[in-house]
Amino acid sequence: LVSSDGTVCIDHGLFLTVSENLIGNASIIDFTDKKAGDAMTLEEFKERGKHIQEGDMVFLHTGLDAKWRTNDWEPYPYVEMDAIKWLVDEKKIKAIGTDATSLENFNHKNADGIDDQPNHNYVFEHNVAMVESLTNLDKVGKRAFVTIEPLKINGIEACPVRIMAFLDGALIPE
Predict the structure, then answer these.
(1) Can you name the residues that pair with 25 across neighbouring β-strands?
(2) Strand-pair category, 23-30 with 170-171
């Protein structure tokens, strides 16, 4: 998890600013029908994510956590840029996550033909946290209260996190 200037969210006193993005209500969107290389489109987010509320965290359930460290773990479905912009600008999400290894289109190149990560860049520029390689989204349902707890490690761009989901007052077991 990094801040908009590329520093660790808990480094340089940013924890208090960014920490509000790491606790709150979450919407889980089912994309388990998507296959490797498929796009998750804006239209699909609007249809499948009708339960997304302003200020939510949004987690994308693809089912790929079950294929971790197998030959089928990658590639994965990716989120189209207009969907990211809608989530950030219209829904004002404070975090986005997936049980896949990334949200990016593996084949995306910038104007100079260089591999690029526009989804990462956009969410970080807007102080939105990103979590990849989540597990157990199939146990959460459509909504939950979630905490994202990063390790305090200085000088890195990302770190492991523990995420807890509370549903009807109960902790979702690992």
Answers:
(1) 145
(2) unpaired
Please count the residues of the chain: 174
Give the integer Cα–Cα distance in Å for 82 and 105.
Answer: 13
Contact of 99 with 64, CB cutoff 8 Å = yes
Global pTM reads 0.81
CA atoms of 139 and 18, how far apart (whole Å): 27
Copy the structure tokens of residue 147: 């905490």
The pLDDT tens digits of the residues spanning 49-93 come to 999 999 999 999 999 888 777 777 678 899 999 999 999 999 999
Rg (CA), the chain: 15
Cα distance between residue 142 and residue 27, in whole Å: 6
Peptide bond into 150 cis (omega under 30): no
Which residues, at least 6 apart from 16, have a Cβ–Cβ distance to it below 8 Å?
A: none
Beta strands in 6-139 (DSSP E): 23-30, 39-40, 57-61, 78-79, 95-98, 129-131
Structure tokens at 135: 């597990």
